[in-house]
Write a structure and sequence with these properties.
It is a single chain. The chain has 6 helices and 2 strands; from the N terminus they run αβααβααα. By secondary structure, it is mainly alpha-helical. The protein has a single domain, classed as Four Helix Bundle (Hemerythrin (Met), subunit A) (Up-down Bundle), CATH 1.20.120.330. A two-stranded antiparallel ribbon has the order 1-2. The longest helix has 24 residues. It is globular.
């Protein structure tokens, strides 16, 4: 699916840029990452993956709010970031976001999904890197969060 299709299908919609929501979403991202770390420490690897992916999604949404976009599709969120920010957010970081999008979906809806300790550790590390990359994007803008 292309970025234009995401907009045509209303999976991404334009709204007024909202710095307050961007800040709230970034704060939610940091909070969820801390929650994921606690879940990991207590051996709850499946929930850890879900919460760590949620942290990544909230970070992504901070950019969207700042840009005046609201999402109705996690995949289109990835497409938007890839199309608009691949010059700032490294490709491997964007790919990790997409991989964990799929993994998070499986963790929530999959009947056979089993999260390992290594899976949970990987997503926590990737979420930390992703959030740092998003913070860099937001600081580079003249309307930094």
């Amino acid at each position: 699916m292309s970025l234009n299709e995401c907009f045509e299908r209303n999976l991404l919609r334009r709204i007024n840029p909202n710095m307050k929501r961007a800040r709230q979403s970034l704060e939610a991202s940091r909070k969820r990452l801390n929650e994921a770390r606690k879940l990991y420490e207590h051996g709850f690897y499946g929930p850890c993956i879900i919460v760590a992916y949620t942290a990544m999604l909230h970070a992504a949404k901070a950019i969207l709010y700042r840009d005046g976009i609201i999402e109705k599709s996690h995949y289109c969120t990835f497409i938007y970031l890839r199309e608009k920010y691949s010059d700032i957010i490294p490709r491997n970081v964007l790919v990790a976001f997409n991989v964990h999008r799929i993994e998070g979906h499986e963790a929530i809806y999959g009947l056979d999904f089993k999260a390992s300790k290594d899976d949970a550790k990987t997503i926590i590390v990737d979420a930390e890197v992703f959030i740092e990359a998003v913070e860099k994007v937001l600081k580079l803008s003249h309307n930094g969060v």
